[in-house]
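Recap quiz, item 2
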Amino acid sequence: MGEDRYLVEMKNIHKWFSGVCALRGVDFAVGYGEIVGLVGDNGAGKSTLIKILSGFYPPDEGKIFFEGKEKHFSSPREVRKLGIETIYQEAAMVPKMSIMRNIFMGRELTRLKVGSVGYLDVPRMEEESMKALEGVDLRLRSPHALVDELSGGQRQGVAIARAMYFKSKLVILDEPTNNLSVKESQKVLEFIQELKKQGISSIFISHNLYHVYPVADRIVVLSHGEKIGDFRKEETSIEEITKLMVLP
Amino acid sequence: MAQGLVNVLKKIILLREISSLIMLLVVVLVFFAISPLFLSQENVAIILEIIPELGIVALGVTMLMISGEFDLSVGSVFAFCPIMMTMFVTWGFPPLLSVIIALLMTMLLGALNGFITLTFGIPSFITTLGAMLIWRGAVLLITGGWPPPFPAEMSTGILVGRLGILRASIFWYGAITVLLWFVLERTDFGNWIFATGGNQPSARAMGIDTHRVKFTNFMLCSLLAGFAGLIQSFRLATTLPSMGTGLEMDAIAATVIGGTALSGGVGTVIGTVIGAFLIRVIDNGLVIIRAPSYWFRVFIGIAIILAVILNSFVRERAKKLRC
């Protein structure tokens, strides 16, 4: 059994890639409504850990508990059904599709089903996507605009609005402030705080500590596939974590 | 007022089909100016008679290309299907059953393309290039290079029967166009096709079974190619082992001229219909104005390049128009 106070708990996770050890015995947990910052240098194992948590591949060793019950995460589809939504930096959106089609991608609203093909309920999808965007205070003129025409920050906003709309329990953000201007990064941090207000847990992955620190409740540091730090924000400082991260 | 006009203009320019439509209109007008015979009832009927064969193949290629894959084997499958149908009749199967088995076999060939491409993760360009050679070879082996006699007991009316100046095939083409337009633009499966071709990792992350989407389109593309092959063999009442040679290039040309992106994720059914018309109109128009038919390839080549340039250039410009 996992502990009840955590929404998700990963215990003793190991992962090898053709003989190279990417993760060695990592414990990682996220509480209800908590924002956890996951930091570490490139190659520390952050993205491997996240890919396991979002169902892309199984751990070679270790257990995952969700809402106190052990789960085997076998595909991204299944993980999303549990309410875990991962927003990858580049891969969250299809640029050549409209905002509306992106929001409902894979979870389209349909009116009539023939076999496994459903007739799209376009008017309702228009209406609901505008509602979803208002949830993160994002004002865009039309749900039919292409995502291609949005700024990087706006795209993150749409992805977060999508996660909120579908009542996710845990949102994983992979480097959401990468390549964004200062002002846009600020906006993304506001989106993340909005998630917390609605009781949604989130994992914020970044190598920019200055973005993670202000919003995170807890900060986890990975290095060379191992967890080397796990602090409540009050117990630590940016300086302390920076020292940990640059240790050889 | 002027603002509203700019907006309407911008909307029109941003239509994906617009450059191919303009080219089609220009070509039609030029041929008509040179020879008024071009738009005579007889000649229009001839164009409508031959268009479905290329048009239906191109529709399948479009669906597959939007989902991010190629099929170069459509020309060979185009011959494979009617040849198999003929063989089955020769072996004593009832005509209708022979048609059904032949169509199922072409679907199987598409499934094989999909299975090999997706299982081994190799480019579909390679898989279907191989398939193109294999099935053309198979057709030649089966027939020994000679056209088998077209089964006399086969009733061809349902596919190519005459209705006034038209043939039934144009209605099949119309129905398939409407059906595929609907699937692509108005169903969740259509959304998955765009998502799969537009950004496969993202579609996968959102829980779309991208392999199933591609696999289905491989089968659809092959099936439509076989069906179009049947139409041609019914129309000519022969089955030639060489039929459909080079058709894959015309089908891809029609698709690309119509605004579908080679890289996937973007494209329209209507654009491909316009593309197919453009190719067949150029083909036919050159005959009508008595130009040497060698010009055909030259013009199609120019049309492809021009369409893609117009598409990207005009769209970039239109985006910058303030509204």
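Chain B has 14 helices and two strands.
Chain B has one domain: 16-320.
End of item.
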